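for the recovery benchmark. tokens below, seq after
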């Protein structure tokens, strides 16, 4: 099965383009793909059939673009406003007949964390995803849908599509946590490195803590989102799919726990860095003080013999020999004593 040529030609028509990329559409019937790549204007036609589930993906749409979709699906203007607004908090809002979801996909590249915002409108038989940019790989989402066992997807429902989306989002959050964990290991190696590059440690520690704070801010609300979805009285998730969402919820807890553990680890590393820096400073001061004591001996002896008054050996070769012997013997004695006590 699939769409006929007249349904797929819309991508060549600029009038069908919404946002920075053409919309992606797909329809399922009985768990099998019924059509793909059909125009947005046909969404309502497919939804009129009680045994069809549809999906629509929009990338960086404008407000006027979403109004077209809102008219097709009967979306609330407040939810539409949230979908096009950036930096909304991760949340799940319920409206009459559908729900609005907002999540974040973190990506760590060369130690830098970038958040990609993804919104979704979820009804009983429709899922509309709204991406603010191309950072979220929608092709990976499609592959996950195609490769995951359908479970309770024999009945017309968008819950299975939502499960695949949330599962992918949480997996990407776990991947980001692992990348930050690797970064923490590298910072730990720098802390205990003999070179002890203080500026590099400070810079990377600050960046790591900043990234962990940003990731925690978007990961913690996911617990509330999954808890709301799993509430039986709301009847958002069909019973056959509850174990699937429970598994996603467990992964969400892992993200939060791992983030908190990494934050504690970074705090411990910073305390260790300060302690090591203090110990290194003490070692330096100990060595400097020891050398200062050794240098003080010849200074004292030569100062004594530099007096302009008669003394034993004054203006004689024997006086020079005596002062030299005193300097060498006392300096070597102090050096040996400090070396034995590990002060040098």
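predicted aa per position
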């Amino acid at each position: 099965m699939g769409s006929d040529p007249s349904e797929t030609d819309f991508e060549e028509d600029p009038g069908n383009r919404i946002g920075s990329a053409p919309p992606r559409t797909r329809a399922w019937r009985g768990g099998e793909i019924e059509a793909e790549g059909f125009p947005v204007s046909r969404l309502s036609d497919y939804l009129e059939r009680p045994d069809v589930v549809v999906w629509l993906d929009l990338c960086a749409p404008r407000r006027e673009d979403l109004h077209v979709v809102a008219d097709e699906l009967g979306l609330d203007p407040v939810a539409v406003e949230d979908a096009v607004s950036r930096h909304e908090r991760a949340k799940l809002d319920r409206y009459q007949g559908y729900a609005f979801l907002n999540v974040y996909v973190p990506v760590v590249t060369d130690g830098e964390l970038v958040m990609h915002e993804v919104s979704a409108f979820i009804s009983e038989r429709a899922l509309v995803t709204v991406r603010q940019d191309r950072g979220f790989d929608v092709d990976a989402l499609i592959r996950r849908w195609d490769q995951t066992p359908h479970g309770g997807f024999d009945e017309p429902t968008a819950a299975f599509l939502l499960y695949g989306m949330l599962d992918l989002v949480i997996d990407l959050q776990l991947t980001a946590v692992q990348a930050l964990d690797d970064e923490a290991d590298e910072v730990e190696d720098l802390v205990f490195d003999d070179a002890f590059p203080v500026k590099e440690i400070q810079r990377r520690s600050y960046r790591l803590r900043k990234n962990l704070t940003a990731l925690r801010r978007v990961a913690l609300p996911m617990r509330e989102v999954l808890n709301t979805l799993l509430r039986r009285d709301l009847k958002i998730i069909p019973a056959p799919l509850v174990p699937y969402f429970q598994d996603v919820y467990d992964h969400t807890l892992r993200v939060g726990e791992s983030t908190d553990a990494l934050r504690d680890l970074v705090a411990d590393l910073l305390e260790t860095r300060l302690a090591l820096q203090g110990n290194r400073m003490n070692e330096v001061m100990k060595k400097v003080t020891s050398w200062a004591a050794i240098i003080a001996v010849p200074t004292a002896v030569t100062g004594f013999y530099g007096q302009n008054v008669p003394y034993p050996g004054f203006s004689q070769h024997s006086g020079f020999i005596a002062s030299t012997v005193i300097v060498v013997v006392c300096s070597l004695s102090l050096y040996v004593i400090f070396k034995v006590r590990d002060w040098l």
